[in-house]
Amino acid sequence: MRAWRSAGAIVAALALVGAPAPSSRATTADECLDPGPNTAQAPSDVDPALSRPDITPGLSPAQARPDVDHTLSAARARPGPQAAAGLHDPNHLTADQVQELQRLTEQALARRGLAGRPRTMATVTIPVIVHLISADATREGGNIPDSMVTAQIDVLNAAYGAVTEFAFELVRIDRVVNPAWYPIIYQSAAEREMKAALRVGGMETLNIYVADLSDSLLGWATYPQPALDASDGVVILGESLPGGTSLPYNEGDTAVHEVGHWLNLFHTFQNGCTEDGDLVDDTPAEASQARGCPEGRDTCTEDPGEDPIHNYMDYSTDACMYEFTPDQASRMLSGWDAFRAP
Asked: Which residues are catalytic, by number?
C-alpha cells in the first residue's frame, strides 16, 4: 500500500501555441497495433515524461526542440513491433516531477481553503466536445460515425458513475477534415497548432481529439494545471472507441484511462514498489505495467495485494479493465477542486 500524501492535481507547463492552419469543419449538435504508413517513428531516447529527444546540453527543451510540445502529459501505448524494438514508451513522470506537481496542487487547494478537507457533493457534470480529425471523408481516413462517439460517452459514464461523482455530457461533435493534422503526431507542432485552433471552453470543459495517432499510441492526456492553455485535453485513437478495429483495445477504455489522467490520476504502476507509488492509498503497489490480463500477477511481493490489473489506470486490455477505487475517486475530486472547478 502507498503512504497517503494528500490528494491533489498535477500541473502542466504552458505549451507554445502556433498559428491555426486552414481546415474544413462541420459540427453536429446531436451527437494500445502497428502504426499506419504515415505514422512518424518516435526516437528511442525520449525523456520519460516530456518526450525530449536529442536535447542539446545547456539548452532548455523549448530552445533545443521548438518543433516539439513540451507540456507534461501522459500517454498509453499499444504493444507491438515498435515496443519490441526498444521504442521508449512516453507515459511516465519521474518521481521528482510527481512530487513537484503534487506540491503545486496542495498550494492550489490551500488557496481555495480546501486543504485537508474531504468534500462530498452532488454529481459533477463535465461538458464534452469531441473533435473528429480526419484526412478525408472515408472511415479509413479517420471519419468514424457519430454512433461510436455516443457509445464512448456511455462507456465513460458507466465507468465513472460506478464510484465517482463525475458524469459526462456530450455537447457536440466537431468534424475537422485536415490532412496536415492527420495522423496526430505526439507533442508535435502540428498537434499544438490543431489544439490552438479547435479547443473551446474553460478548464472544466473536456476536449477530446479523435484520430489515427503516431508512435503506436492509443492516446494521451494533459494533467490539471493552474492556468488554461490550448494544450489541455485528451487525444484518443479513433479505432479504440467502442466498435472500433483496434483489438483488444476497442471497448472505449482508452478514453476512460486518459480522462483519468485529465482528472488527476497517475498510472497504478507509478513509482513502482516505492512508498509513494501512485499517491493513492487503496491501489496495491505494482512494479510495472500489466499487459493482457495476467490474473494473480504480483510484482511487489513485499507489499499487500496482487497487482491492480483490473484498474482503469493500468495497461491491461479493455476486457480486463473495470474499476476505479474510492481513493482514486477522492483524488480526482481534489484535482477538480484545485484546478478545474469553475
From this structure: 258
